[in-house]
Fold Trichome birefringence-like N-terminal domain-containing protein.
Amino acid sequence: MVVSKIIISRPVPLSLSFLHSLASSKMKFQAMELLFGKNTPKQLIPKVTLLAVFAILVFTITPLSYPLFRYSSSSLKKNGSNQPSSSAFDDLNESASLPSTSIKKCDIFTGEWVPNPKAPYYSNKTCWAIHEHQNCIKYGRPDTEFMKWRWKPNGCELPIFNPFQFLELVRGKSLAFVGDSVGRNQMQSMICLLSRAEWPIDVSYARDDYFMRWKYESYNFTMAAFWTPHLVRSKQSDSKGPGQTGLFNLYLDEPDEKWITQIEDFDYVILNGGHWFTRSMVFYEEQKIVGCHYCLLENVPDLTMYYGYRKAFRTAFKAINSLKNFKGITFLRTFAPSHFENGIWNQGGNCVRTTPFRSNETQLEGLNLEYYMIQLEEFKTAEREARKKGLKYRLLDTTLATLLRPDGHPSRYGHWPSENVTLYNDCVHWCLPGPIDTWSDFLLEMLKMEGVRSAQEKLRLDKV
Ligand SMILES: *[C@@H]1O[C@H](CO)[C@@H](O)[C@H](O)[C@H]1NC(C)=O
Ligand SMILES: *[C@@H]1O[C@H](CO)[C@@H](O)[C@H](O)[C@H]1NC(C)=O
Ligand SMILES: *[C@@H]1O[C@H](CO)[C@@H](O)[C@H](O)[C@H]1NC(C)=O
Ligand SMILES: *[C@@H]1O[C@H](CO)[C@@H](O)[C@H](O)[C@H]1NC(C)=O
Ligand SMILES: *[C@@H]1O[C@H](CO)[C@@H](O)[C@H](O)[C@H]1NC(C)=O
Ligand SMILES: *[C@@H]1O[C@H](CO)[C@@H](O)[C@H](O)[C@H]1NC(C)=O
């Protein structure tokens, strides 16, 4: 196997900060939205007004520091090694490459979108994995500029996804996308990006769009999607409910067995969730009703959607931490804001912009902010617990980059104009090709950093 040498660049203070200081907001994000799914009638939904507005958000998560590094083009060949191929970083001379005092850390998740004339790297003609509802070019989206951007972190570069490098890193491994259809959207983006190297074969256990499994045979790499919009066990108890978008029973202390029973052998698990928590829900704990979100049931206190959202992630993380044989890395892919403007999703709201925002043109607020903060808080707690057991948690912190892409959604180009679809103007999912492709840039960079991190951890141990 070709082993690449890591080069650490520039020293910088430690911290993964989400620092986002912004001018006044141009957009008010509407709280109500929903994803395509089973049983989703196109009907009314209550309007929720959210007032939380923060000018500056600073989160410092010390264990999550991201060193900047690049792969050297002069790769080293490793001979006669008895080490497994996954240890691509063993050549790193820790004491030489990682001066203990200061190492350049770059928060790859804070930055701006900059033009990239070379993009996109696939099209609807070269990739069959594009979901119909995200095949924007097929359905007549006239503008193409939205495909021609890349993410530029402040203070470093984020390399464009290299499918060969990625597959080399995940050789013999497996990756699970656990969550809603935005997670599936990400997996399909990744299949298209990887197609330059190899097409996967379908090794799904059943013919179910919601639970696909793909295998990259020459790399022995498996990728699977698990559809679990609430992460915890949930059941639709009424197709209408007060909001006319269904009433769901959520068993907040029970992880959804559709994924938790399946992921034990996976090396990487990417969790996501959010859009489904805006609907009416009744919350159960220990099999008793404890409250709800907009259920309008007598004697059931409204605990807000945020209560359910927090508990769902808490339960999901706890369940992962309790798995006996799980040795994988848990990624939280943070909430991906939608971009309905001039109305909520079923009241004429739409996303018609054709260029990204600069970071000073919008800000995280309302539901997006609440969701994001809940995720970070639950993640931190879970990560602390996990570390005691030697389990790794990583934040795939896509929220800011995603917030800045109001232009990346299908809008009305996810279907024929005559088609009767739930989300007529889809400002939730992402056109392919499109901004969601960048999530793979992030993921690859994070996987590369795993080597540096384990080296750092070793180094830290050595010094004790
Ligand atoms: C490494 O392998 C190549 C052939 O694959 C050989 O030419 C070279 O001498 C080997 N180097 C060492 C240090 O074993
Ligand atoms: C690593 O680098 C240090 C400092 O340059 C050097 O003293 C040491 O011998 C190197 N170790 C190995 C295993 O190459
Ligand atoms: C791809 O998009 C074109 C429009 O540019 C459309 O005519 C064609 O049907 C699409 N093909 C597929 C396979 O989606
Ligand atoms: C493929 O990877 C799996 C782990 O994902 C491993 O158990 C299996 O032995 C590998 N097969 C080959 C042929 O390397
Ligand atoms: C945002 O920043 C850019 C460049 O830094 C500047 O040209 C622009 O005027 C700023 N916009 C706002 C709304 O502050
Ligand atoms: C669209 O679908 C909904 C629910 O499936 C149905 O109630 C409505 O009548 C349909 N509208 C049209 C124009 O077919």
In short: Residues 23, 358, 360-361 surround 2-acetamido-2-deoxy-beta-D-glucopyranose (ligand 5) (CB under 6 Å). The longest strand covers residues 247-255. Helices lie at 94-97, 163-169, 181-194, 257-260, 304-322, 366-388, 399-403, 438-463.
